[in-house]
Amino acid sequence: MDRERLMKEAIHSGEMEGAYVSAEFRKDADEYVAGDISIEELMTRTKRRWISKKKAASHGA
Question: 3-16 and 23-34 are packed helices; what angle lies between their axes, rounded to 10 degrees?
């Protein structure tokens, strides 16, 4: 399966489940599709953002 189709299906699946797909993730996904980053880097960036937002939310509580 090609990268573009994989990302479109992953994003669509997430949205169908009610997930919010951020502009930052879409930008990273575009870089993955273009072959500029690996799937591992895509996952690392996604996890880093998620952890950062989780920490920010816990400090605001």
Answer: 160
* Distance between CA atoms of residues 4 and 33, nearest Å: 5
According to DSSP, residue 36 is labeled S
pTM: 0.80
SS3 60: helix
CB 10 within 8 A of CB 39: no
**3 Cβ partners below 8 Å, 6+ apart?**
32, 33, 35
Q: Are 24 and 32 in contact (CB under 8 A)?
A: no
Residue 2 has pLDDT above 90, yes or no: yes
- Alpha helices (H) in 1-60, listed in sequence order: 3-16, 23-34, 39-60
